[in-house]
Amino acid sequence: MSVAQSFFSESDKALVVEAIRKAESQASGEIKVFVEDRFGSDLAGRIRALFNELGMRETSKRNGVLIYLAVVDRKFAIWGDEGINAVVGPKYWEDVRDRMREYFRAERFAEGVVEAVRTVGKVLAKYFPRADGEINELSDEIIIR
To answer: Could you say which of 3.30.390.50, 3.10.50.40, 3.10.310.50, 2.40.110.10 is the CATH number of the domain covering 4-144?
Structure first.
């Protein structure tokens, strides 16, 4: 079993998935959480590749957000597609990252991810409110490899 597979308890996973579902119930955006052991040598390249692999560029409003954790490497990142980036800018992502880091330093990893999901969900709801008939374009489950 990889470190990533045992990183979150089942109850932690349930909390994260519930936060994603709640956030997405208010917004048309898609939030994905991806956890793996290592990212390789290029973190930004890995995240871009995953964004494409997971179909996050295929959302209708280009407002997908990926929360990425490489647990053995002790690295994490938040990546938004061009639709959400156009309205929030880089400072927003830095603020979310810094808040997550506070939780992570206290080894409250699930809480940090849940807080990030809630924070991102609020901004998605503000700029991309859910309209009647919109569908959930991507699974809400955490991906762990």
So the answer is: 3.10.310.50
